[in-house]
Design a protein that fits this description.
Elements (H helix, E strand, L loop, with lengths): L1 H28 L6 H4 L6 H10 L6 H13 L5 E2 L4 E2 H36 L4 H15 L2 H15 L16 H37 L3 H8 L4 H23 L1 H6 L2
Helix pairs in contact: 5-6, 5-8, 6-8, 7-8, 8-10, 9-10
Length: 259
Amino acid sequence: MTKYLIRRLIIAVPTLLGISVVIFVILSLAPGDPFAELALNPNVPVEVRENLRRQLGMDDPVHIRYVRWLTSMLQGNLGYSFVSRVDVAQLIWQRLPTTLFVMGSAYIVALLIAIPVGIISAVRQYSWLDNIATTLAFIGFSLPTFFTGLIFILVFSIYLRWLPMVFTTNVQATGPAWLFEILRHAIMPIMVLALFEGAVLTRYVRASMLDVIRMDYINVARAKGLSERAVIVRHGLRNALIPVVTIMALQIPGIFTGA
């Protein structure tokens, strides 16, 4: 196992380098640059703008800029955000806790929805419960999160006025009141993301359970006199979750890219 992991890590290095080269070249060929906003600002003289371009090496060849960027990134220097007026690394660390909280909570809620619904849908295949679950799952992952978010805002923020329209962690409260306000702000984005991820995972859990419950060892477990609940939960679910866990692992980068 250790040799396999080392081999995969060694293979990942040139792969990531190749991806970074392609993305860097594409961005370099795209029209515009980081100083396009300054060009529209009459308060910034042309000499100042050109001086900044020279200092940051924007006029250097692409390969030189790539090597400079790669070296800085490996040293932890991710650059400077001209929009937020702060270092990118500092900006990421400021936003990361909130992102992890929202996305992590959404994935937990999605699993709590997907596992029981997927199991029931597979065990009672083609029943009315299965038809309802399958239909809702199709609707859930067919609707983009920005559309579902707008629907939630219209219903819960504008019409019912139950939840705040904008999520923020800058709550002017302390103690239990602070926790309550944080939950009020977080529940809507968490549920929007959880419904989408839950719909996707429900399909995977259902398909995996349908494959597992047809296996011979499931029939053997039933023949031994085990209850249907024990057969499904102890023997079926354990093996059915293997591909689901794989899918979840592949989606981990999505937690860090934000909600």
